[in-house]
Amino acid sequence: MNSSGGASIRPQIHFGCLGATLNPGGAHNTDGMPPGKPPREDTMDTQHLIERLQQIVGADNVLSSDMDLELYSYDSSLERARPDVVVLPGSTEEVSKIMALAHTEKIPILGRGSGTNLTGGTIPIRGGIVVHFSRMNRILEVDFANRTVTVEPGIITLDLQNQMAKHGFVYAPDPASQKVSTIGGNFGENSGGPHCLKYGTTTNHILGAEVVLNDGTVIRTGGKSQDNPGYDLTGLLVGSEGTLGLATKIILRLLKAPEAYKTMMAIFETIEDGANTVSEIIAEGIIPATLEMMDNIVMKAVEKTIKVGYPLDAACVLIIELDGMPDGMDEKAELIMQICRRNNVREVKVAKDEAERAVLWAGRKGAFGSVGQVRPSYLCCDGTVPRTRLPEVLAKVIQAGKKYNLPIGNVFHAGDGNLHPLIMFDDRNPDELHRVHQLSTEILNICVDAGGTISGEHGVGLEKLQETHLIFNEADLAYERKIKRAFDPEGLLNPGKMIPETAGPAR
Amino acid sequence: MVDNAQLIEDLSGIVGQGSVVSGENDIAAFAVDGKIPRAVAYPKNTPQVSGILRYANEKNLGVVPWGSGSKICMGNPPARLDLVVCTRRMNHMKDVDVANLTVTVEAGVKFLDIQARVATEEDRCYLPIEELTRQADEMICSDRSHSGCFLPIDAPYSCSATIGGVIAGNSSGPRRLLYTLPRDLILGIRFVAPTGEIIGSGGKTVKNVSGYDISKLMVGSAGSLGILCEMTLRLLPLPETMETLLFSFGAFSEASAFAEGILNTRLLPAAVEVINAGAFEYLGIDPATGFFPGAYVVAVALETFTAPAQRMRNELKARARSSGIPDPAVFGEDAHRLFWLGVSDLNPAAAQAHPRMLTLQMNYPISRWIDTVKFAVDTLTAAGIAHTLLVHAGSGVCGINLLTGAEEKTAASVQKLLDRCREFQGNLVVHRAPAELKPALPVWGSPGSDFPVMKRIKQMLDPKGIMSPGRYVGGL
């Protein structure tokens, strides 16, 4: 095994009801350190470290019991590893002191929010300090005149969005985890969601940040004032998975809330008809706020649990939502329905009011949860392809599922080409588990071959380290390592993530 | 240091005979802030750029990349200059995928040509098609969509700029209000690092979180981190309706109050631009349009579907009437295109008349736009400096050309404007100035607390400092 930080390379797996019983083994479990885990270079003993941290944040805000460390040993991926200590800072100054301490003592350090990360980005595979931003969750300044809101990283995304909505403003990025995830986590992962074709991803909505560097230095990047001269460090830091610095304040862009929405649901007999409808809507010059699709397997799962009235014999459902000024929106909706009919739609509905809109959305929002009811576990891939390649890629994905004899449900952001094939399996069956991993790698290969990429919105983290070789050559990776070194020459910030530390297998 | 004859021979080995020039006239045209390079190379593809930079890094040659040269005046005078790398021959559109709403183009492709290439089958284009067919008729292809697309960048120097230069400068114009900045429209990039490696990042998808977002680092890096070779950019469908409403005012206070009122509605104009008479003069507006500006003009661009455009037009007219402001002139379609093309090319037009003019860009938080611009107008007027003014109201950015006036007062006035912007965490960049004045000017404004990190990045990625030596922020 090559030394990619000791992480076994697995795709992200969501466990249904059995998640709690499965422990793949972590750094501090009885089986010792995972293979490839290098010994830490620091000499400070853990008790001394705890005392020093207590001096910085107070005794109540340092966690080090067995149970605490176990609680911080996992995220929404399969990986596990315990930190040596968890610290809950209350201010930038405290974060700065913690970072300076880690730097002086050469201790690995990792910032995190709610741990909804799907790729192991929040797993402390080298132990060390985990900085949990739960106490730094305030809205620091609402500035509607400048269309910005400045927050601490620990604020929950949806809480912030609900606050802003009361004033007629929108913070656009809405990853599926928004009820739990934090803005700091969204910053680190450059989170996506269903609105990206029209509104872009998290990076397009972050104007600046206060960032604590590896040695505790505090800098400000970007700001309320745009076009500041110099390199776009904000753009580089967003999506850097906590490997370059820790954001302690984040300035977000606010948009005026759309005056009107129009939500439609169309049922198709074939996936091709649905995909062609998407292409024709866009060719007509219309960019809907969302274009979300689900296939038959997922529709059936949804019907079993939520009952939104999907026909069980249809191939797919497409949810289309327009937003913006209401003027002419009815005509555009009519045009979209004509396009649906041209593409053999079985049925198309328009939500007449907010309640009906909520019903149309309920199925989509509940899709992942419903799939968990069908089989004990599912694996969600995150490959992304140019939108126009979707029909062909989906066909290949379904084919690949047959080859490995595993059912795949497809829920995807059809507007931006982000697939989420859900491979359903029973994790108690080792043979199935093995096939799941093979199938997932094959799906990512299919995406890359179609001009796409291995991750649209979940990140690389630990689990796609090897797959980075599918899209990057050694020069690209060496370049990324140089960027990492410019920020963190000692390699203490979230070590072992995002960039494979050594060259990949010959291809 | 390698001698000139050897330099030409070595470079010819990389890009081919005839693609390196060193004749007196050939190199004089590529002077950067008055400094003349020893040679100019014209690579035809990315591997050749890689060969050039590998060589330059080995021999420690100072290199400046060059597209059309429209923005070459940006930055400090180069600390040293051996070689200009001109991207003129790298002018292929590698992938035009209007259905996917992306284009992948080489750096030397003209910005205008991209717009022509993605226009409708009937030549309905974002920019005036007369301008385009002349330059790009070979690009009118059969795979254009019937509703048409455009690259939603409102680039200054639209008539000459290459896409590489637009991205290297993160260039934007009035319509960034609706379409944001190039940094938000770039999906993928291929470039050659200062040490010669070809680096790729991103791709053809809106969502992509595989590795660091290196496109963001390169956008706006102004040739200091390597040479951009290919970029993938987002397209949008062409707006159903394109029109501009021009309102005339006697004073800045009236113009700014009206513009601010528009920004506080729920309307979604593409631009709300405040233009002074000094700037309007250079926009090349045909007097036959019957529009004669007052001291200030507020130009509102509407680029959307027909029904919302109609509502915006009606509401804007009603707002004007209720404040006793005369009805606007309405420029539809071609007049609209020509108007904004004129705005994008204000600087070269003004520079023809005033070759020694200074071009400034002030930035500040959106909410400070009225008092900051008023301060600038008052300061310049008091110093007797004639100026053009393009205020991107709603974006927190203002472009100023200092045309004439007591030259000894210029540096002091620029410093005053910079100080004012810094009060609100803004900044000021001198985009253009006579080379000999630059040492006394804050060319890149005042650095922030993140400058040490920029320095570390530059040193890590360009250890010998060969790329645009000394030209970037803080002398990087």
Structure in a nutshell:
Chain A has 507 residues and is an alpha+beta fold. Chain A contains 16 helices and 19 strands.
Give descriptors for this structure.
heterodimer; A: about 500 residues; alpha+beta; Uridine Diphospho-n-acetylenolpyruvylglucosamine Reductase, domain 2; 8-stranded antiparallel sheet; 5-stranded antiparallel sheet; disordered N terminus; B: about 475 residues; Uridine Diphospho-n-acetylenolpyruvylglucosamine Reductase, domain 3; Alpha-Beta Plaits; 4 domains; 17 helices; about 35% helix
What does this structure look like?
- The complex is a heterodimer of chains A (507) and B (476).
- Helices cover 33% and strands 19% of the residues of chain A.
- In chain A, the strands form 4 sheets. Chain A has an 8-stranded antiparallel beta sheet with strand order 1-17-19-18-14-15-13-16, with helices on both faces. Chain A has a 5-stranded antiparallel beta sheet with strand order 6-7-11-9-10.
- The radius of gyration of chain A is 23 Å and the shape is globular.
- Chain A is α+β, with helices and mostly antiparallel strands and 507 residues long.
- Chain A contains 16 helices and 19 strands.
- In chain A, strand 9 (206-212) and strand 10 (218-222) form a beta hairpin.
- Chain B folds into 4 domains: 4-86, Uridine Diphospho-n-acetylenolpyruvylglucosamine Reductase, domain 2 (2-Layer Sandwich), CATH 3.30.43.10; 93-237, Uridine Diphospho-n-acetylenolpyruvylglucosamine Reductase, domain 3 (2-Layer Sandwich), CATH 3.30.465.10; 241-344, Alpha-Beta Plaits, CATH 3.30.70; 347-440, Alpha-Beta Plaits (2-Layer Sandwich).
- Chain B is α+β, with helices and mostly antiparallel strands.
- In chain B, helix 1 (4-15) packs antiparallel against helix 3 (46-59) and helix 15 runs antiparallel to helix 16 (407-423).
- Mean pLDDT of chain B is 94; it is low at 134-138.
- The relative contact order of chain B is 0.12.
- Classes of the chains: A alpha+beta (507), B alpha+beta (476).
- At the A-B interface, strand 10, helix 7, helix 8 and helix 16 of A face strand 9, helix 9, strand 11, helix 12 and helix 17 of B.
